[in-house]
Design goal:
121 residues
Length: 121
């Protein structure tokens, strides 16, 4: 099992982190999402650029659905994991057309660039 981040949604977050010379953070709390460590804020104080994993966005997915998907993949505890946006798989996402799949075991996270899925007709 894994969760997927659309590359088209993740690239602006990675670009913001590169411009601000900071890391990106994978967060699991109210959903599963990436954001730049230092990013532009909205008037309400929340980070402006956030990209959620498909199915794990509390603003659009039903609570029971996103909560169960996040718990099944990452366990019950909240966390934040920091990454360099210019390293490894993130460079592929930033400079290409790939999506990102993230999966977890009890001891490690696995990140993989994958071909975007096609939706619709």
């Amino acid at each position: 099992m894994s969760v997927r981040f659309k590359g088209s949604d993740l690239r602006p977050v990675l670009a913001e982190a590169v411009v601000n010379q900071c890391r990106v953070i994978l967060v699991k709390d109210q959903g599963v999402y990436f954001l730049a460590e230092r990013g532009e804020r909205r008037p309400d104080g929340r980070q402006k650029l956030i990209t959620y994993a498909e199915g794990c966005n509390p603003d659009v997915d039903a609570f029971d659905d996103w909560w169960e998907l996040a718990r099944a993949e990452f366990g019950g505890d909240d966390f934040g994991e920091f990454f360099d946006p210019q390293d490894g798989v993130f460079a592929l996402i930033l400079n290409g057309e790939c999506d990102l799949e993230v999966s977890a075991t009890a001891t490690q996270l696995s990140l993989q660039a994958v071909t975007p899925t096609r939706r619709g007709n």
